[in-house]
Design a protein that fits this description.
Strand order of the largest sheet: 1-2-3-4
Helix content: 10-25%
Order of helices and strands: EEEEH
Structural class: alpha+beta
Number of helices: 1
Oligomer: single chain
Radius of gyration: 14 Å
Number of strands: 4
Distance between the termini: 23 Å
């Protein structure tokens, strides 16, 4: 699992998940509830077969948007 701090209370977790026998990559926002991390409904799960395409799409969007802070 990979964790990326979003803000003081929220973390983005990237992990492997499984649903009905199918594996997925799950990106989900988790929040701190008095010391216990809990998932929110905010997130996305996708088939690992399209992971490379998803990553390339994100990078292309960043490049085309000319985000200086990237």
């Amino acid at each position: 699992m990979i964790e990326i701090q979003k803000n003081k209370r929220e973390t983005i977790r990237i992990s492997e998940s499984e649903y009905e026998g199918h594996k997925f990559i799950d990106l989900r926002i988790w929040y701190d509830d008095n010391g216990e991390m809990k998932p929110t409904k905010k997130g996305i799960s996708f088939n690992p077969n399209i992971a490379k395409e998803d990553i390339e799409g994100i990078l292309k969007t960043v490049e085309e948007s000319d985000w200086k802070s990237f």
